[in-house]
Amino acid sequence: YLTSMNFQLMRELDQRTEDKKAEIDILAAEYISTVKTLSPDQRVERLQKIQNAYSKCKEYSDDKVQLAMQTYEMVDKHIRRLDADLARFEADLKDKMEGSDFESSGGRGLKKGRGQKEKRGSRGRGRRTSEEDTPKKKKHKGGSEFTDTILSVHPSDVLDMPVDPNEPTYCLCHQVSYGEMIGCDNPDCPIEWFHFACVDLTTKPKGKCKTLSQINK
After folding, report:
1. Whole-angstrom Cα distance, residue 112 to residue 92?
2. C-alpha span between 201 and 87 (Å, rounded)
3. Using an 8 Å Cβ cutoff, are 9 and 74 in contact?
4. Vertex 144, ends 143 and 147: CA angle to 5°?
5. What is the dihedral of CA 90, 91, 95, 98, to 10 degrees?
6. Under 8 Å between Cβ of 153 and 141
7. Contact between residue 167 and residue 176 where contact means Cβ atoms under 8 Å apart
């Protein structure tokens, strides 16, 4: 609602500016056509009117710039909030998928282990161990692949959106701010802010910035 109001106000300011510019053109034309017949005081008065009109135009333009900056900040705030919600949703989805994969893999491992034991006796026990380990490895591998997919989807989706070329960049990826980010407590850190996805984080860590430590070495 506030954003639409700002756009409406900017349109009104545009119209006021155009009206004032038309008024300036009329005043300037009248001054030029009558300047030879005007007394010094009248000339000053006419020029003062033109100057006041220009000042009003500048005032309208300044107000429009302030409204544009305010609107940009409001939109950017909503985008950041949406990015954070999307990151939380993807994290929840990842946890649910990993939990589901763990349960299904564990059930298959136990069932297959019992079948091998019944068929192969003591040799089957050794076989069962390897079979039971297999789902865990698959689960770990699958979980890793899913995590990589989730973490790669989030930044790409965000970076596909149009970006202000003047907006500052952060992190090892040198991209704009989006989603959840972690700030380095060390004031000498050259990067300062990192995207969770780029540094393989899901929660806020503790300790010193590894990037700065590596640079110092």
Report:
1. 30
2. 12
3. no
4. 85
5. 60
6. no
7. yes
Q: Which residues pair with 170 in a beta bridge?
A: 175
C-alpha to C-alpha distance for 186 and 168, rounded to whole angstroms: 20
**10 CB-near residues (< 8 Å, 6+ apart):** 64, 67, 68, 71
114 residue type, one letter? R
CA distance 108 to 89: 29
C-alpha pair distances (Å), 39 with each of 34, 42, 177: 10, 5, 62
Residues 38-73, buried b or exposed e (16+ Cβ, 10 A)? Answer: eeeeeeeebeebbeebeebbeebeebbeebeeebee
Q: What is the mean pLDDT of each run of 10 residues along the chain (217 residues)?
A: 78 91 93 91 93 93 89 87 90 83 57 46 39 38 42 46 64 75 74 78 63 49
